[in-house]
Amino acid sequence: MRNSKIAGVGHYVPERVVTNKDLEKLMDTSDEWIRERTGIVERHYFQEGIDTTANMGANAAREALKMAGLEAKDIDMIVFATLSPDYIFPGSGVLMQRELGLKEIPALDVRNQCSGFIYALSVGDQFIKTGMYNNVLVVGSEIHSSGLDFSTQGRAVSVIFGDGAGAVVLTPAESSDKGVLSTHLHADGEFAEELAVTAPNSNKKDRLTHEMIDDRSIYPYMNGNVVFKHAVTHFPEVIKEALDKNGYKPSDIDMLIPHQANLRITSYIQQTMGLSPENVFSNIHKYGNTTAASVPIALSEAYAEGRIKEGDLVCLAAFGSGFTWASALIRW
Ligand code: ACO
User: Fold this and answer.
1) ipTM of the prediction
2) What superfamily would CATH give domain 4-172?
3) Where is the region ACP-binding (predicted)?
4) Residue 1 has pLDDT above 90, yes or no
5) Residue ranges of domains in the chain
6) How many CB atoms are located within 10 Å of the residue 36 CB?
7) d(C-alpha 182, C-alpha 4), whole Å
8) Taking the complete model, does pTM exceed 0.95, yes or no?
9) Cβ < 6 Å from ligand 1: which residues?
């Protein structure tokens, strides 16, 4: 079976920048609290009438296509990861398909939150491995800012998230020691409600009620301590799983691209795995946590900054709501 490789990568963030100081005007918080606990300095928020989850994905996809030297019409399949789709249904994949003018190819939405992009990459990789498709567009795109609780009650969560999109084009690799070497996916639904938005809720007679708005269950809930504990366990576990599978050790990693959850989580992974800071990419200070978009945005920036070169061993890893966690090991 053939490997897939990342032939192109790109990202898009909305123009509007929202600093911690801007958030101080909306709720009882401080630049110091946010920086200290999360490492975030600013994030980007979408602008109504300009940005949508689907069209931000399309903007990132155009960049990825350009780098791959392909045109939209060359794409055989779209895999679109998001937890903030444009509509309840249909998925954002078909909306992006329309935007890119890609009639009749399959478009699949993946709903695995912070691990969504790596799950989506794994799906695309399987289609290339089996020979069913040659060029797969894998996208992560999120608009969080329209669904955050900007009251003091929601501040621990709302300061963390930002909007943006990233994309890669997967094509067949030249040899079995190049490209995506393996992907590793996990989930544990035992913790489903520890990081979740539970309303609207299709199990209620009325999906959306005034009560849901009043009790704020339409906004994300996060049990920060539980998330932290599981994240710092599963991140190293799933990175080691990928290394072991391919006969590598942590010091072989040239660039680790972790989901940008929180700088404290990233620093913890870097230290417990004995990696040097130069081998671990972080851009959370600029974008906050963009969930399914965070890994491809980080990958795109790392590549653009020359921090990933031909032949490098690159590891992608994520943990998030579900709980879900995942990794991918790539020989660039
Ligand atoms: N600004 C100012 N004060 C705040 C804010 C805020 N934005 N949010 C909470 N506080 C206050 C709380 O009200 C509390 O005040 P009190 O002591 O008077 O009661 C105090 O700060 C400490 O609150 P905690 O919830 O205990 O804060 P903690 O130190 O646990 O930090 C945090 C919260 C940053 C969320 C932490 O739990 C954490 O790092 N968790 C990991 C989760 C995470 O990073 N998730 C990322 C998204 S999920 C993912 O991508 C995997």
Assistant:
1) 0.91
2) Thiolase/Chalcone synthase (3.40.47.10)
3) 260-264
4) no
5) 4-172, 179-331
6) 11
7) 10
8) yes
9) 29-30, 33-34, 37-38, 114, 155-156, 159-160, 195, 222, 224-225, 227-228, 231, 261-262, 264-265, 289, 319-320
